[in-house]
Amino acid sequence: MIAMGLLGALLGAVIFGLVMVLVPPRRSALVQLGRFDAHHRTHPAAAALHPRQAPAPDTAETKVGSWVLAQLARHGVRYPGGLRQDLALTGQRLDQLMGRKTVAGAGGLVIGLLALGFVQYGAQLALPAGTPLAVGLIAGTALFFAPDVDVRKAARKRRAEFVADLSVYLELVSLEMAGYAAAEAALPQAARHGGTWSMLLIRDTLLRARLAGQDSWDALTDLGERIGVADLRELGSLIRNVADDGAQVRHTLSARAASMRRARLAAALGEAEQRTQSMRLAQLLIAFGFMVFVGYPAFVNIKF
After folding, report:
1. Radius of gyration (Cα) for the chain, nearest Å?
2. Alpha carbon 218 to chain centroid distance?
3. Do 212 and 42 touch, CB atoms closer than 8 A?
4. Taking CA 138 as the corner, what is the angle to CA 132 and CA 139, rounded to the nearest 5 degrees?
5. Overall pTM surpassing 0.85 (yes/no)
6. CB-based contacts of 131: which residues, under 8 Å, 6+ apart?
7. CA atoms within 13 A on the CB side of 80
8. What is the pLDDT of residues 204-236, one digit of tens each?
C-alpha cells in the first residue's frame, strides 16, 4: 500500500512538472517582439549607437536544449526554417524550445511507464509484455511535439495581426508619398501613426536600417524573411523594380494593400462559411438526437 502511495505521488509530481514546462508564463507580445528585434544582429556601425539588450540568462532548460541541438547538428539534423520564423515571431529561442520539448518528452515517457505500472501492479491487470514501454514511448513522442503546436498556433495568430497592420501601413505610406514625401521619408513617418506591436516593430526596423546605412526596403524584406511574412518579403522585390518612379511606387503600394485586404476578406469569408457548416452539422445532430429521444418509447413498446 505504501508503495502504491509513493508511486501515485511520483506520478503526480511528474505531471505537475510537465504542466509547468508545457504552459510557461505568458509575456506581452510587444515585449517579446522587442526582444526578438533587439537580439537580431545589426551592422557593426549601428551597434555603438543602438546596443542590443543582454541575452536572457541560461537556465537548465536552455542548457539541455543547447546540448540536444549540438548533438543534432553533429549528425546533420537541422530544424525547418518555418519553425525558426515562428520562434522569431513569438520572441522565443530555439534552445529554450528544444529544452522544453526534451523535458516534456522525457516526462511523457516516465508518465506512461508509471501509469501502466500503477495499472499493472496496483490493479493486478495482466498486460502484454512491453505495453508500459510502448505506451510510454507514444506519450513521450506526443508531448515532445506538443510545444511545436503551441508555437505555431501563437505565430499564426501574430502573423495574421501583422498582415492586417501591414495593409494599413502601406496605405499610410502611399498617403505620405501623395503629400510629396519621398519614399525614404514616408516609410518612418507612416510607422509613427500606429501604436500596435507591428507598427513598432516596423518603426524599429527602419530605425536600425537608417543607423546601419541599409536601404529601407531591404530592411523590410529582411524582416519579412525573419518572421515569415511573404507579403512583406515580396514587397521589397517589387519596389526595387520601380524605385526610380515615385508615382509607380505609390501605385504599387496601393495595389498591394488592396490585394492584401481582398485576401483577408476571402479568408474571413471562408472561415465564416466553415463555421456555418459546423453549425449546420451540429443542428443535424441535435435534430437526430431529438428524434431518437421522442421515438424511443414508441419503438420499445412495439410488439413483434
Report:
1. 27
2. 24
3. yes
4. 85
5. no
6. 116, 120
7. 6
8. 888 888 888 888 888 888 888 888 888 888 877
